[in-house]
Amino acid sequence: MLINALIHTLVVLLLSPLLIGIIIRVKSRFAGRRGAPLVQPWRDIWRLLRKDLVISHTTSWVFFVGPVLGVVVPVLAFLFVPLGAFPAAISFEGDFILWLYLFALARFATAAAALDTGSSFEGMGAAREVTYASLAEPVLFFCLLVIARLSGSLSFNGMFGADIAAMWPTAGVSLLLVALCWMLVLLLENARIPFDDPTTHLELTMIHEVMVLDHSGPLLGLVHWGAAMKLMVSGALLVRVILPFSTGHPGFDIALFALGMILLAALIGVVESVMARFKLPRIPQIMVGAILFAFFAWILVLR
Amino acid sequence: MYWILSALLAFAVSGILGFTPGLRQRLGTALHLLCHVAAAAFGLYGLYRFAFSPLPDLILFNLPLPLGELTFRLDAISAIFLAPVFLVAPLGALYGLGYNQQHTTLHRPRKFRFWYGLMCAGTVGVLTADNAILFLLLWEIMAVSGYFVVAAEDHTPEAKSAGFVYFTATRIGTLALIAAFALLYPLLDLFRFPAAGALPAHPPLVFFLFLLGFGLKAGFMPLHVWLPGAHSAAPSHGSAFLSGIIIKLGIYGIVRVTSFCAAPPLYWGWTLLGLGAISGILGVAFALAQHDIKRLLAYHSVENIGIIAMGLGLALLGRSTDNPALIALGLGGALLHVVNHGLFKSLLFFSAGAVIRTTGTRDIDAFGGLLKRLPWTAALFLVGAVAISALPPFNGFVSEWLIFIGALQTLQSSLSDTAAALMVLPVLGLIGGLALACFVKIFGITFLGTPRTPAAQDATEATWGMRAAMLPLALACLVIGVLPTLTLPTLQMAAHHWTGIISTYPTPLPTAIAGLGWVSRIALVLIAATLLLTLGLRFKARRAPKTDTWGCGYNQPTARMQYTASSFADGLIGWFRFSLQTKKSGAQLSELFPKPGQFYSHTPDGVLERLVLPLFQHIENTFVWLRRRVQNGIISFYLLSVTLTLVALLIYIF
Known about the structure:
Largest interface: A-B, 77 and 79 residues
Strand order of the largest sheet of chain B: 1-2
Number of domains of chain B: 2
Structural class of chain B: mainly alpha
Number of helices of chain B: 24
Number of domains of chain A: 1
Helix content of chain B: 55-70%
Oligomer: heterodimer
Order of helices and strands of chain A: HHEHHHHHHHHH
Number of strands of chain A: 1
Radius of gyration of chain A: 19 Å
Structural class of chain A: mainly alpha
C-alpha cells in the first residue's frame, strides 16, 4: 500500500503539469502557432517557486492557507483514485464522500484567501466560485450514485474497478450521461472554457483566476501546480469511465490510463479552441441542466 | 444517575444564590459560575460512570404524586443529548462574565442568571424524565425559562416581540404534547414511559401531534418562525444554549416517542426525511440572505436540524424495513450531529458575540478586517465555520458521513422500496455547497479584508474568560473530527436502547469503523501537511515587501468598495427568489452624473410574515366577531346558551 501511495503521489505531483502543457499545445496548433514546449508548465512553476513574493497589507495567514490546501488536497484526494485499472492506494466504503468534501475544503480555503485581500474583484471571484460549485455538488453525487448502484460498491476501487466494462452494454445511456455531466463539472471546476477563461485580460469576467490575483511568487506557483493536479484528479475517473478496459498487467494498465489522460487533455484543448466562454448568467442554467441529466441517468438505473 | 440529578440541582440553585440580599454583584456571578462548574463536573462524572454500564439506569422516587411516580432514567440516548449540555452550560456561564461589558451590558444580570440556571436544570430534567407528567412539567420549566432568556433585554422592542413569538410557539407546542400524551394514556402504565419497542405504532393523530409539539421546539421549516428572532434577540451565551441545546430537545422528544413503537409505519420515516430536506435547503437559503450575524446563525440551526431529521428519518425507515445497518448509521449520524451541532454552533455564537460586544452591531456589512484585531476569536470562529460546513478534519464531517453511509445502505433496494432515500445524497451535497458559500461569506466579510466602519477599526479582542469559554468547544470539534471512532460504541448503544433489541444487531458496525479510521488518518495528514507548508511559506514571506492590494489599475480603493455580504450572496439568493422575497431599495442610477445613493436589502421571514401573522390576525378577527355576537349583554340570550349547552350534554350522555 505504501508503494502504491508513493506511486500515486509522484504521478500527481510530477506528471500533472504535462496536462496543462498538452492543452496549451493543442490550443496553439488550432491558432496556427507552434506552441510552447510541453515542459513549459514545469518551468513556470519552478520559476515561480524560486521567486520572492510580494503580499498585501490587508492579508493575514488565511491568505497562505488557500494555495497550501490547493496543493495538499489534490495530492491526498489522488490517493483514493484508481489509475485506470491500477487500484487506488486508499480504499474504504464511502471514500468518495471524503473525496468530495476534501475538495470542498480546498474551495473554502481558496475563497477565504481571496476575500482576505479585501479586493472587490477577488470577492466577486470568490462569490462566483462558491455559487457555481454548490450546483456542481448534486451533479457529482448523482453521477457517483449511478456508478455505485451499477457496481454495487461504495468505494472508488469497487465502483471504477473491473466491472466497469461490463456496465456499458447494460447501462450505456446512463454511463454516457454520467460522462457528459462529469465533463461539464470538470470544465467548470478546473476553470476551463466555456465556463471560465484563465487567459482573459479582464478581471471582471473571470471566476477562478480573479481569486488569485494577489498571489505572487511561490504562492502563485502553488496555485498553478494545484490547478494542474486538480485537473488530473478529476479527469482520472472520467478516463476510467470512457476507457473501461484492463489488460491484467499493471504496466499496460498504467500506459492505457496515461493515454486516456493525454487524450482528455487534448479534448479539453479542442473544446477551448472551438468554443467561446459562456455569459456568466448562462453557467447556472447549464449546471441545472447537468443536474437534470444526471438525475435522468440515475432514474434509468433505478428501474 | 444520582450524579446527573445532583447536576440538575446545582444548575437550579446557581441563579438563586445571587438573589441573597446584600450580596455583591461580583460574588453572585462567581457563585453562579461555581455552581455551573460543579454541575458540569457532577454531570460529566455521571456520564463517565454510565459509559461503563450499558444498561439503562433507572431511579424511582416513591413520592405520592397524583399522576404516577417520580421516575428518572439515564440511557445512551439521554447520555448523548446530555453530554453537550454539561459542556455548553458552564462555558456559557464563564462566557457571560466577559460578555457583560462594553456595548452589551446585560439588562438585569441577576434575573438572567436565575433563568439561565433554571433553563439548564429543566433541560437536564427533560432529558432524564421517565414519566410523561414529569416530562411535561420539566419541559414547561425549560420552555418558560427559555422565554426569559430570549426576552432578557426586554426593554428593546425587538426582544419583546421575539419573546412574544417564542412564547406563543412554545405554548402551542406544549398543548400539542399534552394532547398527544393524553391520547396515549390508555396504553401507558400511569404515564410511565414504556420500554423501547413495547407499544404498537402510534395512530397518525398522535404522531403528528408529537411532530407538531416537538417540531415547534426543534424548528423544522414551516415551524421555525420563532427561531431567528429569538436567537438574535437573546444575549450571545443565551443564543448559544438555545441553538446548541434547547432546539435539540425537540429532536430528543421525537427520538424518545418513536422508540416506544415496535414497528413504525413507513410514512414516519418519509415524513421526517421530507421535512429534513425542506428545512435543510430552505434554512441555508434563508441564512444566505441574512446580514445580521445572529439571524444568519439561527437559520443555520434550521438547516442543521434538517440534517438531523434526515438521519432520524433514515433510522425510522430502517426500523420499518428491518434494516439494522440503516438504523445504526442513520440514528448514529443524527445523534452525533446533535452533539456536533451543539459544539460548533455554541462556538459560533460565542465568537459572534465577541464581535458584537466590541463593535456594538450585528450587521455583517459593518465589520471587516477583524482577524487582525481579534486573532483568537477569528481563528476559533474559523474552526466553527469549517466544522459546520461539514468539512474534514472537523466533527461536522463525521456525522454527515455517517448519514451519507446510512443512506447508501438502501443502494440496492428498488424504487417501490426505500431507494428514494438515496436522494439524501444529492440533497446533502447541495446543502453542503450552500452552507460552505454562506460560511465563506460570513467569515470573509466579518474577519477578512479591511474594516468598513470606525467601530470595526477600533475593535478589541475578547476577554480571557470569553476566549477560555470558546477554546474547549473548538478542541472538542477537532477531537471528534480527528478521532471519530471513539464515538461509535456509544452511538451503537443508543441504537440498541432506541430499538429495544440488543442481541440481533452487530456491534459495532465494521464498515463505519474501517471508514472512520481512514477519515482520522487522512485528517491527521491533512492538518500536518497544511501546518508545515503554511509555516514554511510564512517563514519565506517574513521579509516580503508589503504593498496595497492590487486594485486592477485603480489606485484609490476604499474599504467600502469591498464585496459585502449582500453582494456575495446575491447570485445564490436569486435562485431562491420564490421563497425568500428579498426586499431591495435604492441603487437606481439614472442621470449621467448620479448623486450619492443608497442601497438597502432585507429578507424577512416569509413563513412568519406571510403565513403565521395573517393567519393569527384572521383568528383574532374571528374571535372578536364571535365575542361580539355571544357577549351581547342580553340576559335571556345567556340563559338560552346555558340551556342549549345542558341539552347538548344530556344528548351526549345518553
